[in-house]
Design a protein that fits this description.
heterodimer; A: mainly beta; four-stranded antiparallel β-sheet; 0% helix; B: mainly beta; six-stranded mixed β-sheet
């Protein structure tokens, strides 16, 4: 089955720790994205990548980092510099027609 | 001003009702428009694209008014399974997707 996988589904961390969220796709898409969603708000773009070894900051990149060493993989690291990291994180990839989302990772930092 | 604005609802309607959602966008250069559906604690999934001439998919009708810069979604004969949050999405350029905050719909038996 083609699709996007994110793991884990739920993640708990202590404040001050970096944490990496995984995103893998087997759709052969070049473009991949990371969003965060907070209650009552729309999706906000963190980073996107149009091709391997290249990525661009989105609207809220501060406190986050990404890498794109393989076409299939686009991991997101939430660093300790992110002031309010608790949120629902969605990874997506796209073809010309639409964006496809992974199931999301719900991160809670205490 | 937000790129995309939606009435957050909630809309509570009885089964069988017709319900309409509107969404406005601020960038007149926007090129593509979509409605996504998001179930509680799940990822958004494409419901339908919105074409200039309007388009219909079963009980769902989407319309675009470029002059007034708004998009609408009409759901006829509402089912319990239609309960979800509906996200209006506007695309401007290759990688600029803007999401509305979503309109929450609950269909009541």
């Amino acid at each position: 089955d083609g699709g996007i996988t994110q793991s884990p589904k739920y993640l708990f961390r202590k404040e001050g720790q970096n944490v990496t969220l995984s995103c893998e796709q087997n759709l052969n898409h070049d473009a991949m994205y990371w969003y965060r969603q907070d209650p009552g708000q729309g999706l906000r773009l963190i980073y996107y990548s149009q091709i391997v070894n290249d990525f661009q900051k989105g609207d809220i990149a501060e406190g986050y980092s990404v890498s794109r060493e393989k076409k299939e993989s686009f991991p997101l690291t939430v660093t300790s510099a992110q002031k309010n990291p608790t949120a629902f994180y969605l990874c997506a990839s796209s073809d010309v027609y639409e964006q496809y989302f992974g199931p999301g990772t719900r991160l809670t930092v205490t | 001003r937000k790129e995309v604005e939606q009435d957050p609802g909630p809309f509570n309607v009885p089964e069988g009702a017709t319900v309409a959602f509107n969404c406005t966008y601020s960038n007149s250069a926007s090129q593509s428009f979509f409605w996504y559906r998001q179930d509680c604690r799940k990822e958004p999934k494409l419901l339908m694209s919105v074409y200039s001439s309007g388009n219909e998919d079963g009980r769902f009708t989407a319309q675009l008014n470029r002059a007034s810069q708004y998009i609408s979604l009409l759901i006829r004969d509402s089912k319990l399974s239609d309960s979800a949050t509906y996200l209006c999405v506007v695309k401007t350029g290759a990688n600029n997707l803007f999401f509305g905050t979503g309109t929450r719909l609950t269909v009541i038996p």
